[in-house]
Amino acid sequence: MAGSSLVLPMVLWGHQAPSHCISCLLLLPPGPSVLSGCQDGQLCLWDLAPGPQIQPRALLFGHSSSITCLAKASASQDLQYVVSASESGEMCLWDVDDGRCIEFTKLACTHTGIQFYPIPGGSQGRLLCHGHYPEILVLDAASLEVLYSLVSKIAPDWISAMTILPSQRTQGDTVVAVSVTGILKVWIMGSEEGRMQDAGEEESKPIHCQQCRSISLCPSAPHSLLVVCSQYWRVLDAGDYSVLCSVSSGKQVWSGGEFLDPDTVIVWNEDGNCFIYKLPASCLPASASFRIDVGKAMENLIPPTLIHVVQRAEHELLICPPVTGFFSGLLESHPNLLIQGNSSGRLSLWSIPENLDQHEGIPLVASLSLQEAFDSLSPHPAGIIDQLSCIPAFPDPLRVTSSVYIPIHGSLVCGREDGSIVIVPATQTAMVQLLQGEHALRRGWPPHRTLRAHRHRITCLLYPHQVSQRFHPSFLLSGSRDSSVILWDWISGERKQQFRVHGGEVRQLLVPPETCSPRVQQCICSVASDHSVALLSLRERKCILLASRHLFPVQAIKWRPADDFLVVGCEDGSVYVWQMDTGALDRCVMGLTAVEILNACDEAVPASMDALSHPAVNLKQAMTRRSLAALKNVAHQKLQTLATNLLAPEAADKSHLPKSPPNSLSIQSLKANSSDPDIHVLFFDVEALILQLLSDEASRSRNPSSSQDPIPKASGILDKGPSFLAANRAAVLFQQVKESIKENLKEHLLDEDEDEDGSVRSRDPKSKPLESHIPMDTARLFLSCLHAWGLDPNLDRLCLERLGMLRPHCAVSFGLLSRGAHMSLMLPGYARNSIGNTAWKTSGTYGISRAVTTQHLLSIISLANTLMGMSEATFLMGQRGGWSQLAALHCVMLPDLLDPITFRPPLLEMLARRWQDRCLEVREAAQALLLAELRRMEQDGRKETIDAWAPYLPQYMDTVISPGVTPESIPMGSTSPDPIGSEARIQEEEQELVDDDIPAGKALTFLLLQPPSARLPAHSTIRRTAIDLIGRGFTVWEPHMDVSAVLLGLLELCAEADRHLGSIVPGLPLSPAADSARSARHALALIATARPPAFITTIAKEVHRHTALAANAQSQQSIHTSSLARAKGEILRVLEILIEKMPTDVVELLVEVMDIIMYCLEGSLVKKKGLQECFPAICRFYMVSYYERSHRIAVGARHGSVALYDIRTGKCQTIHGHKGPITAVAFAPDGRYLATYSNTDSHLCFWQMNTSLLGSIGMLNSAPQLRCVKTFQVPPVHPGSPGSQNSLRLARLIWTSNRNVILMAHDGKEHRFMV
């Protein structure tokens, strides 16, 4: 969902905090903050406030298994880059400050420890990883790519712990590691130049430290190593790794330790207790007795002295040992910080003083669990249907244990722990939980329906029509802990069928693939906790297969439709293959064969069409395996192939139809742990919401009565695929469902709510959730949560009273989607972070992170602009206006109204990537935001940005142009430090095709004119960006580019603009070709208005060149197919814009303009309809006149000449008779005379046309004979007011008869003349 769309998550946590069994910890100095990983795969970010105080800020989702280790991933103190690894081999690089996943990968190995190693003399770094593999992997910290390995040639084994010893020598730092068998290994980190091969160890020495937990170095005295094993801990000499002292654990199990000082260590055990020891003098390099015990037996070594014991914070029952970490020198207020996290999600902090001898104990300074943070909030964090789940006798509402969202109707189905199922309108129930208003005070609001049949909690829900449209839209299935599966008609509330085939709770409901047999296609697969799997037929209303011979829990369900096999994978690695048609167990395998069968099922799914093309192979397999269903499938394969071939043309035609937009709102339930209640995340797709609003606006304008339909037409648009409405049978089915919904609206839409005494109370029949406008309700909810309330009281009042927005109850928990569908979600109470409560009042969501600020501003500005352009854009009846003020606040005024210390400005690279977003509204918002942010940054800020981006920009960028002068050039650098997508790679690759010293103008020309290729497609985003920048900065690029080539390239893209842009369906995004044509049109208009002389003269030269080539018979074919010939209409459109906006510039080159018009207009059409009808814009000038009978056009030029065009021959004749610019020309009614007037020389001249019969009717190919028959001296006409526009309309010539003419000045004065 993240993809290229603008998707914003919003979360409803509920009263119960998510489980967070902490498995690793990391302290991040800037902030400061603590990052904790848990057994369920989430990361939690905790803010540390002065005191210290702990406040959880966000949960990061991205791993599917337990987090094994965390490490810093940047040498800069300003960047909070962290790398996390999980048991399944997943690695993620996070920008913790923004909550973004920058990079991710998955390796076929599990890391148990990671250390960051900065490269000397550079800003880059390496990640040294060890784990369940016999070497140390060296990864690039930015890309997570494996560069090389530190291998072990002597007794290779898994590495238990590792540390890096800084070297005083020039050969490099030393990597010291201990294997699981107790062998110490040493590698030298030398120069990486030319090293891309594995390196062997320098030393290998057995030290008999089995089950090593950690190895650490004293920072202030790097001569001692602390090695902590499960049963003992030892101090080693870093020189020869000899034992200096050793302490046994006794009954305890040590889990880690660190140096406090050169003579003090702190170690902790699995119970969470920490012990501080004073080392003997034999362990201190500065002491005279250093190493006196080396070589002695362990029992004869001088033992350290125990000076302090730090007890665990809370003696609560834990399911796994707590995790402890000691961090020294990272915080100024607490230089020695001991942090502990346990399985209940509790974080505890101790500050260890420097002078331990002067303190009797070490008190706990802070302790907080996630649940305590939730309980301390008022109001409590809301769940999705808390208002409908409250029970008077219990403080907490009923927990939602399973849920599914039905986007076609905007309904949310929630299964609760008491076995009931509640169906509510999603947007309305979210408004109740998040926004203030009268709706929050109504009892039982919103209107809902409750389904009751299960005796225990609901464990899973399935709406099969959303997965496959072969199922009836009214079908809903629910699985429960009571071992039953129920088929519901969720529209009427009727229970269709109850299946009781399992012996344990139903864990999962699945839909078989489309390629299964017709009988199986009408089934649902259910998986239960008793290790059984069933196929439940919805058509036959019975179980057709019960696979119940599995000995271990079911872990995977695979399908082999071609062989009619259901493949079940269990947790012990065994695989059971069942025949779906007969219900017989075909085989049970384990080991490598089981893995191959599961992999073969994965490979068979995308290759289903290949199976149909080899019937002989399938027949052989069917005969060998004696599968009856497989034999049937083979028999039907030829019919399927024939049907596919027959329907291919129809499908090809329908593929060109515009697809419906995705859902603007999607609700997904999450569980941090299987025992937790559901967390509901609302995903708002801004692009889809804009498209739905525009689609509904267009449909209302086409059919005003459609708004009266109780079932909104958006339901058809919201459908996930076009095939549902494409097939006739499916269309009929949809119409039947629609009619059934209409019939049941009044009777079944509102649930009969039970009062406390058990009586039934009917709701108000006027409240019908399906009558609500889903896109408008979604926009209302979204904008109400996004708006920066409290900054402008007048605007807040306008939003409430005129726009119909609602104020939130409290801070809304937003989130951020990043690469690979990784997500960060703000925890409730995040506003009470380390910067205090004033942060929420001054910055709100715009003080969380720069990425969140960017997405929120893009969303609210694009939506406000969309609603501003709609005719019915209000959430209240009878109110209009105000959207422009809302957009202006967030686009321009927001930084000035917020606290500059807490405000997090938008990210320029995110705005630059959306400079040519496929959604026009989002594109315009991104461009406005980027330009506003560049203006706010001023010259110094822009220069810093360019300097920061310079290493990542293509080298052909123009280094002469100042970055502060042309901020429009910023979007060209979309290859930011974190390049995303193919367009960034294209920019990097294209620099190999051009010289390094080519200025930016030629680089943009290259991107425009380069022929389409795999690296640079014809209608790619980078090409559109180049087109846009050429138009915006043409005045800067003009000296560096071939103007003629650029204009012809743009005209080539505009040649079929009318065809591409004319077929657009309102509300749907532009196709790439239409988007390129639109961008080229806009660029042409910008170029023409910025440099009218350059545009006119360039096009005129091309016209003359093409006219000359047209005389050559051999080039006729290429001439008619050239860009200039095919873009005649586009050239005329640009000339109309110039005449309208810049007539003075057009008049200066009026003859050239007329040359272009004569080329673009069809002569036969002008002769038939006249110039006034074919191109009326040019006729507004007094110095242009057209005579219909002779089909001649007279044009007065600025240098005193008159150009006479003959439409029939296409030739032009020039006459000279004035000493200054021509002010007006006019043909006599009979065409025998042409009057010309110049205000500069104050002369009025009469020209006699040829009087012969043949010449007057245009039958002579020779040029007409013109002679000046009379000249009059006229008083000059003075303009009424200064200005270029007034000088164009000083006077005009009006013939009253064939020999009489009036010179009418602009002030109404008339001068009459007669030839």
Quickly list its features.
elongated; alpha+beta; five-stranded mixed sheet; six-stranded antiparallel sheet; single chain; 1315 residues; 63 strands; 36 helices
Number of strands: 63
Measured between the Cα atoms of the first and last residue, the distance is 79 Å
Structural class by sheet pairing and helices: alpha+beta
Question: Unreliable runs, pLDDT <50, ≥5 residues?
Answer: 606-660, 706-771, 833-842, 956-998, 1252-1262
Explain what you see.
The chain is of the alpha+beta class. 28% of the residues lie in helices and 28% in strands. The strands form 16 sheets. A 6-stranded antiparallel beta sheet has the order 2-3-4-5-52-51. The chain is elongated and about 135 Å long. Keywords: Phosphoprotein.
Secondary structure layout plus pairing:
Blueprint: E1 7-12, E2 22-28, E3 33-38, E4 42-49, E5 53-61, E6 67-72, E7 81-86, E8 90-95, E9 100-106, E10 111-118, E11 125-131, E12 133-140, E13 146-151, E14 159-165, E15 173-179, E16 183-189, E17 199-200, E18 203-206, E19 212-217, E20 224-229, E21 232-237, E22 243-248, E23 254-261, E24 264-269, E25 274-278, E26 305-310, E27 323-328, E28 336-341, E29 346-351, E30 364-369, H1 370-375, E31 400-406, E32 411-416, E33 420-425, H2 426-434, E34 449-452, E35 458-462, H3 464-467, E36 475-480, E37 485-489, E38 494-499, E39 506-510, H4 518-521, E40 523-528, E41 533-537, E42 542-547, E43 554-560, E44 565-570, E45 575-579, E46 585-589, H5 592-604, H6 608-612, H7 615-625, H8 628-655, E47 665-670, E48 679-685, H9 686-702, H10 714-717, H11 723-726, H12 728-748, E49 753-754, E50 760-761, H13 774-786, H14 793-801, E51 815-817, E52 823-826, H15 838-842, H16 850-868, H17 883-897, H18 908-913, H19 920-949, H20 982-990, H21 1000-1009, H22 1021-1032, H23 1034-1037, H24 1043-1054, H25 1057-1062, H26 1072-1090, H27 1092-1110, H28 1116-1120, ...
Parallel strand pairs: 13-17
Antiparallel strand pairs: 1-48, 2-3, 3-4, 4-5, 5-52, 6-7, 7-8, 8-9, 10-11, 11-12, 12-13, 14-15, 15-16, 16-18, 19-20, 20-21, 21-22, 23-24, 24-25, 25-26, 27-28, 28-29, 29-30, 31-32, 32-33, 33-34, 35-36, 36-37, 37-38, 39-40, 40-41, 41-42, 43-44, 44-45, 45-46, 47-48, 49-50, 51-52, 53-54, 54-55, ...
Helix pairs in contact: 2-13, 7-8, 9-16, 13-16, 16-17, 16-19, 21-22, 22-26, 24-26, 26-27, 26-30, 27-32, 30-32
